[in-house]
Design brief:
By secondary structure, this protein is an all-alpha fold. Helices cover 67% and strands 0% of the residues. Helix 4 packs antiparallel against helix 5. The protein is globular and about 50 Å long.
Length: 180
């Protein structure tokens, strides 16, 4: 496996330095994921922009968590599952929702479970999902906007999950207590 550098604000490539400062402003630290991504400033910038944009979608905190964690768990991302469990806790998402997502058990809330199933279908089938799944999604109260917004979250998670697989990114200390 290739060894990746965990950059700091001091030794990051010049184009990544301001992005690293943005990470500190957003998280109070440079998460190890961002420290790895700094190697490729366009990747780090793209990830930061998609993270911000996904949070501006029509999804609430629970729904954001469902999309993020469904993808993280499906991709078996050792870093993002605990990181997004910590983010969910900071957003005051019910721990039962997080536990169900991490443990791959159905969500008690039918609408959220439909979002999980649709996100999982989109992830597994690369966006080619059945008319029945789309109809179930719409019947649950979601629309075309939310169907398309899942793609924003999926794009963000591909960037982070794949980076973490390549780099075997160490889980940050604040996220370790959320690791299973």
């Amino acid at each position: 496996m290739a060894e990746f550098t965990l950059y700091t604000q001091d030794n990051a490539p010049e184009e990544s330095k301001s992005l690293m400062a943005d990470s500190v402003a957003a998280f109070g630290m440079v998460p190890n994921l961002h420290a790895v991504m700094a190697e490729a400033p366009t990747l780090l910038k793209g990830y930061q922009v998609l993270h911000e944009l996904f949070q501006k979608t029509s999804f609430n905190a629970e729904e954001l968590t469902v999309v993020w964690q469904t993808i993280n768990v499906e991709h078996e991302c050792h870093y993002c599952v605990p990181a997004h469990s910590a983010i969910a806790a900071s957003m005051k998402v019910d721990q039962g929702i997080v536990d169900a997502l991490v443990n791959k058990t159905p969500l008690a809330d039918e609408k959220l479970e439909t979002l999980r199933e649709t996100t999982l279908a989109m992830t597994r089938d690369r966006g080619v999902i059945s008319d029945e799944q789309i109809e179930k999604f719409f019947s649950a109260g979601y629309g075309k906007q939310q169907l398309l917004e899942i793609i924003v979250g999926l794009s963000q998670k591909v960037m982070s999950n794949y980076t973490n697989h390549l780099a075997d990114t160490p889980v940050d200390e604040p996220f370790k207590k959320f690791a299973k």
